[in-house]
Amino acid sequence: MRMPKLLQKVLAGVLVLFVAVVVTTSVISGWNLDRLLREQYDSKGAALANDIAAASVETLLNRDASTLQSALDQSAEIQGVSYVFIVDDRGQIVAHTFVPSVPEAVRSLSGNRATTTIRDVHVDGLGDFADIAAPILGGEAGYVHVGMDRAIMANQIKSAIAGTSLAILVVMIALAAAGAMVVIRTVTRPILRLTDVAQSLERGDPYRPEALAGLSKQKDELGQLARVFGDMAAQVKARETRLKQQVEELRIEIDQTKKAKQVAEITESDYFKSLRQKAKEMRTVRE
What's residue 143's pLDDT? Predict the structure, then answer.
């Protein structure tokens, strides 16, 4: 089905607006999703740090280094965890998962006796991390530091945002398609019907009121346009009929005038006058 140019412009404007809405919605959703996933990711790291801190009290008190190291190694195998190390009450690192040594960027990291803290840390050669420090016995026995890899988190966030944006795009496309179908049914078809009737009149075809009968019954602007168009077409047809009748009458009048002139030219000729005189003389002789 062909589409009127005016409607094409309208739909083009709607498409631009649709793209702007999709982009804006995706940005806002991405920002909210990034914040939510960061909170969940940090919460996961904080829970792990608190669990290690609670489980390490007896081990620290007994100075069981091998058991402590084994527990840290197992924790470092959890997805997203890049490093784990424990600092004693004197600030000395007693166990860690770094190979071969602890980077200087994390040696000076401190904790808070009252609560678990989270801070962003950059380690040269390793990347960016969320360092989560949990106090052991309120800081009296030291702190547990868990490093959550921001790169892994960023990849998960990107994947989630891409999935959410795709879902939003699919929903928006479905809504746009449904809206386009409604527009085509309610606007395009009536306009095309009016266009077809106008083109038929332009070709000289007779106007058929039934062609716009259904559209004329509508109570909207298109119905009003169809009624006005129908009235105009009927008036044009009436004028055309009157004009043809006047032309025919004028032609007959011209023909009659022409015949009268031709008769007058014959009767006023010398030859016709001579015949008339001879006929008169013949009637006189007979009498």
Answer: 93
